[in-house]
Structure formats: C-alpha cells, structure tokens
Design a protein that fits this description.
Helix content is 34%, strand content 23%. By secondary structure, it is an alpha/beta fold. It has an eight-stranded mixed sheet, sandwiched between helices. Pathway: Purine metabolism; IMP biosynthesis via de novo pathway; N(2)-formyl-N(1)-(5-phospho-D-ribosyl)glycinamide from N(1)-(5-phospho-D-ribosyl)glycinamide (10-formyl THF route): step 1/1. It holds the Pfam family Formyl_trans_N.
Length: 196
C-alpha cells in the first residue's frame, strides 16, 4: 500500500477527489495534507475526512527557499509518504527539493502541456483561439510544469467561453483525471491516462 501526501494552497477540491478515490482496493492511502497557507479551506476538509494535516507557512521564509523546503521535508519525514501529489500548491519547488522525489511526485496543471506552462492558462487558451483546452497530470521535474506526461483530459472551447466558464469545465475533468492517474501510478503503471 503506497502512502500519499497531498500538497495544497487553497480550497483543496482536487485533494478531496484524490482522497475520496483512495478507498477499497485502491493501491494507495492518504497520510498527510500539507499546506503553505494556514487559511487554506482544504485543511478543514482533510481534517473532516480524518487525514492528518500540517502547515508550513512560506512567508517567514521570505528569500529562503531552502529553509522553507527543509521545513516541508521535515513534515514529510514524520508522515513517511511514498508519493507526493501537488494539488493546487502555489509555490514553485527548487531542484534541491524535487530531485530526491524524482519519479514519485505528481502535479496537475490546467492546460494541455506543453502548452501554457505557468499561470492564467484559461485566458491564454482563449486569447490564442484554441478549439480545445484541458488539463495534464505529469511527473514533477525541476523545470516548471514539465516532466513526463501521465495523463491528459480535453474539453472543447465554446464560442461564449470566459476564463471562468472554461476553468469550471476543466476543473470537472481534473477531478476525473487526477484520481485515475494516481490509481494507475500507485500500482506501478505509468501508461498515460487519456480522457475523453
């Protein structure tokens, strides 16, 4: 049974779908939800689900990313996870943190990578006139929103879409894609999941 730590910064909707999926014959279980924001709504949701939580506020570490990441790792050392899932964690992690977790850390990104790394992906897809948009789960590497693809889900871009309406439809697909990828990944299978 693989032990999973989930990193969040906000409401934690992807964390909830991941945690809810890890039941029954699933090859993994959540052992920690960790946030850089003590006010993250996802922390209360995790507590209500009986998942241990921890907070490492990044603000006292201003300019000291190694110190922040050492504090993150100290929490991971307590929980002993096998897999890390970034689920709306809004801090960029350095190579010093990422490398020891190589091949064991996943992220979900709201675009069809390699398109639109970084922020404001929905607005950028609309500005480009794209016919489709979506989300990607990938292994985390030191390069931002890079790394081997483990799954993608596509949604059509509609004529009257705004960044908000497009984001809402992509989020629905994130909630299907991430649990599907994690189940396969935790079982040792890195074959990409493609939806629909």
């Amino acid at each position: 049974m693989k032990r999973v730590a989930i990193f969040i910064s906000g409401g934690g909707s992807n964390m909830v779908t991941l945690a809810e999926s890890m039941t029954g014959d699933h090859p993994a279980r959540p052992v920690l939800v960790l946030s850089n924001n003590a006010d993250a709504g996802g922390l209360k949701k995790a507590e209500a689900m009986g998942i241990p939580t921890a907070v490492v506020d990044h603000r006292p570490f201003k300019g000291d990313r190694p110190g922040f990441e050492a504090a993150l790792q100290a929490e991971l050392d307590k929980a002993q996870p096998d897999i890390l899932c970034l689920a709306g964690f809004m801090r960029v992690l350095t190579a010093g943190f990422v490398e020891p977790w190589k091949g064991r850390m996943l992220n979900i990104h709201p675009s069809l990578l390699p398109k639109y790394r970084g922020l404001h992906t929905h607005a950028r897809a609309l500005e480009a006139g794209d016919a489709e948009h979506g989300c990607t789960v990938h292994e985390v590497t030191p390069e931002l929103d890079d790394g081997p693809l483990l799954g993608q889900a596509r949604v059509p871009v509609l004529e009257n879409d705004t960044p908000d309406t497009l984001a809402a439809r992509v989020l629905e697909m994130e909630h299907k894609l991430y649990p599907a990828v994690l189940r396969r990944f935790a079982a040792g299978d890195k074959t990409p999941v493609l939806l629909p």
